[in-house]
Amino acid sequence: MRTLYLAVLVASLGAALHASAAQSVAVAVSGPTVTISFDDNEDPADSIFRLAQRALNRSDYRQAATLFARVANSYPKSERAPEALYFQAFALFRIGDRQELKTAQTALDRLTERYPDASRRGDANSLRMRICGELARRGDEACASEVTSSATASSSASSSPSASSSSASQGGRCPDPDDEDDERIMALNALLQMDAERALPILERIMGRRDQCAHVLRRKAVFLISQKSSSRAADILIKAIREDPDDEVRKQAVFWLAQTRDPRVPGVLRDLIRSSSRDLQKNAVFSLSQLGGGEGNAALRELAGSDNTPDEIRSESIFWLGQKSSSENGQFLRDLFKRVRSSELKDKIIFSLSQQRGTGSEQWLLDIANDQSESIEVRKQALFWAAQNKSVSLDRLAQLYDRTNETEIKEQLIFGFSQRNSREAVDKLMSIARSDRDKEMKKKAIFWLGQSRDPRVLDFLAELIGK
Amino acid sequence: MNTSDDDRFDTWLKEASAGYNALPPNAQVPREEMWRAIAAARAAGRTPGVTRLIRTPWTLAAAAAVLLAVGIGIGRMTSDKVDSGVSTLPDSAVPATYGVAATRHLTSAEAFVTAVRMSSYAPRDTAIQRWARDLLTDTRLLLDSPAGEDQRRRALFEDLELLLVQVLQLEDSRTTDTNELLLDKTQQDQLLTRLRANVPAGPPARS
Q1: How confident is the model at residue B178 (pLDDT cuts 50, 70, 90)?
Q2: Residues β-bridged to residue A28
Q3: DSSP type of residue B76
Q4: Do B83 and A287 touch (CB under 8 A)?
Q5: pLDDT score of A68
Q6: A390 CA: distance to closest CA in chain B (Å)
Q7: How many angstroms separate the most distant Cα atoms in chain B?
Q8: Choosing a second label site near A402 at 20 to 30 A (CA), which of A6, A319, A371, B29?
Q9: Chain A partners of B100 at a C-beta cutoff of 8 Å?
């Protein structure tokens, strides 16, 4: 394994460095020491950093960490040194063993001590919290305390620089969330992973913050709360839906509400669909689709079937019914198709039914394609999806082609054949190109044959040209 | 996990695409067929058809069609394709809502990587940095959430996290050379390919 490591490293170096070497430096990777050579005009720190980046990009975290450490240790005045410390910590975090996590912490501490300006930029503070969170989960008391303290601070408006919002309260923009929000979100996340019971009250307090710049934290908090399936989590989300001043927070809360599995959720979602903004209504429809136990499906069918539901919401409901394959949903959608007049809703139903395999939809799509009482666009749509469905045999489509005299249906079928990627489909296209009485159909078939990868097509086209 | 990425990408895309590879005024492009082919291939989870079309000179139009696609393939991760007669949520360990959230996030990430890929290496591009920071926080939250339990998705999130921290470290860089050193184009290409393979056509989250 060691030999392999060295071989890889030497190969990398061969690509990276010029042949005429005038300087050299020794780097130990996984035990043995390797000598890396450089041109006179090449900064060794750059060269090692480049190799380290390559190792990082190919997920060789141990080698990357070693090389980054070498840059930081041997070239502390290099422009690369601060970044090397950061990426050393990142690589060690990815290795993930306790000892590596501790070393990663040390690297970030050195970054702060030696390069305070650099440590304030970029991602160093968030990474530090992420590492500490992982250590806390493994029982590190100091980190547990740091995580809890940072998470708790985020629930208080006065303690957060981004929440003190002097600029915001004076009508300016919120402070750049770069600063501490990311770190605190990571702390909250770590606390949730470490001790969900302690995290929830803190998250609840964050949701209660109304200072102008707290909406960023609240949006992330919603996601964290959603991971806790409990009535208390549902309480917080329902309250946010009803009271939060930020549209995005409300939308997120609706999106995630079904995850709480709380019995109040279906009622809340139904109320929202009756009374809220269109965006919230759409999220509520999605959330209904995520409810188990058939209750969500029943609500979706009710919405899709009612003429009193706005078309946009009916469309959404139809879409999500299509994504939940069942004979009951299939039958409902087929019945609904007969009742609706809007071609847009018909298109949605056709699409939704096309997504349901094994519910009798294949034959139904062909029936619609054949039904001359429907508009040609609706029929083409049905045919398009029937042709995409491998359960509908090519024979049936070919028979339909031979039987129909309708140009648009024939064109649609030719396109359908072209998408089948099968020998039989190419045969049919060649047959049309060779002997169809309609020149336009011949041209269409030839166009799509030209897109085929079937090796027979080239000869066929050459034969046609030679005629 | 917010929608502002879409606006950012729209603005960026508008600027980046103005006049890019414009088609001749009388060009005959079978857009409708192209769109349907792309949509169909996506819906069927099949790539050869897409590859075939994208290799034509209409790449930009095809890309636009993918961006404009409506509803195709969305929710496949949420569907239970068993005709049981009773619809229930999927029994997988990862709830479908996280799948939708992850897809939404990966869609934003795809837009971001595209933007980075086409940007110069100028340091301190504040818009890109801000965008990277937002994505990085969400990526980490998703990594630690049930969405990160799917191993394939987790690997994608981890590679995305690496690219994002590299972009963020550009702040500390003073020269174009340094930035070139930090950002590997091949790495971006590979990530972009994987992101695209994991993001269905259509809006990032249909909700």
Answers
A1: low
A2: A33
A3: G
A4: no
A5: 96
A6: 9
A7: 63
A8: B29
A9: 286
pLDDT tens per residue, range A305-314? 999 999 999 9
pLDDT: is B38 or A202 the higher one? A202
**Higher-confidence residue: B58 or A323?**
A323
Interface test with B, best of A244, A286, A291 (most B CBs within 10 A): A286
pLDDT in tens, A277-305: 888 999 999 999 998 778 888 999 999 99
Percentage of chain A lying above the pLDDT 90 cut: 62
Measured between CA atoms, the residue of chain A closest to residue B82 is A325
Q: With CB atoms and an 8 Å threshold, state whether A388 touches B75.
A: no
In the predicted model, is pLDDT for residue A367 greater than 90? yes
Q: Which residues on B lie below 8 Å from A193 (Cβ)?
A: 144
3-state SS record for chain A:
CHHHHHHHHHHHHHHHCCCCCCEEEEEECCCCEEEEEECCCCCHHHHHHHHHHHHHHCCCHHHHHHHHHHHHHHCCCCCCHHHHHHHHHHHHHHHCCHHHHHHHHHHHHHHHHHCHHHHHCCCHHHHHHHHHHHHHHCCCHHHHHHHHHHHHHHCCHHHCHHHHCHHHHCCCCCCCCCCCHHHHHHHHHHHHHHCHHHHHHHHHHHHHCCCCCCHHHHHHHHHHHHCCCCHHHHHHHHHHHHHCCCHHHHHHHHHHHHHHCCCCHHHHHHHHHHHCCHHHHHHHHHHHHCCCCCHHHHHHHHHHHCCCCCHHHHHHHHHHHHCCCCHHHHHHHHHHHHHCCCHHHHHHHHHHHHCCCCCCHHHHHHHHHHCCCCCHHHHHHHHHHHHHCCCCCHHHHHHHHHHCCCHHHHHHHHHHHHCCCCHHHHHHHHHHHHHCCCHHHHHHHHHHHCCCCCHHHHHHHHHHHHC
Whether residues A53 and B181 touch (CB distance < 8 A) is answered with yes
| Nearest residue of B to residue A452, measured between CA atoms | B52
The answer to whether A323 contacts B81, with C-beta atoms less than 8 Å apart, is: no
The whole-angstrom separation of Cα A434 and Cα A460 is: 9
Tell me the per-residue pLDDT of B126-162, one tens digit each, with 9 for 90 and over. 778 888 889 999 999 999 998 888 888 999 999 999 9
How far separated are the first and last CA of chain A, in Å rounded?
Answer: 65
Mean pLDDT estimate for chain A: 86
Task: Summarize the confidence of residues A448-461 as an average pLDDT.
Answer: 90
Task: Please report, for residues A151, A306, B82, B143, the alpha-carbon distance to residue A187 in angstroms, rounded to integers and kept in the order given.
Answer: 5, 46, 41, 15
- Cβ–Cβ gap A421/B49 under 8 Å: yes
CB distance B76–A323 less than 8 Å? Answer: yes
Per-residue pLDDT of A266-279, as tens digits, reads: 999 999 998 878 88
Query: Which of the residues B53, B78, B144, B186 would you substitute to probe the A interface, choosing the one with the greatest number of A C-beta atoms within 10 Å?
Result: B144
Among A52-66, A203-217, A388-402, B27-41, where is mean pLDDT lowest?
Answer: B27-41
> Out of B84, B162, B168, whose CB is closest to A326?
B84
Average pLDDT over residues A79-91: 93
Global model pTM greater than 0.80: no
d(CA B71, CA B204): 9
Structural tokens at position B119? 């940007």
CA–CA separation, A103 and A186 (whole Å): 20
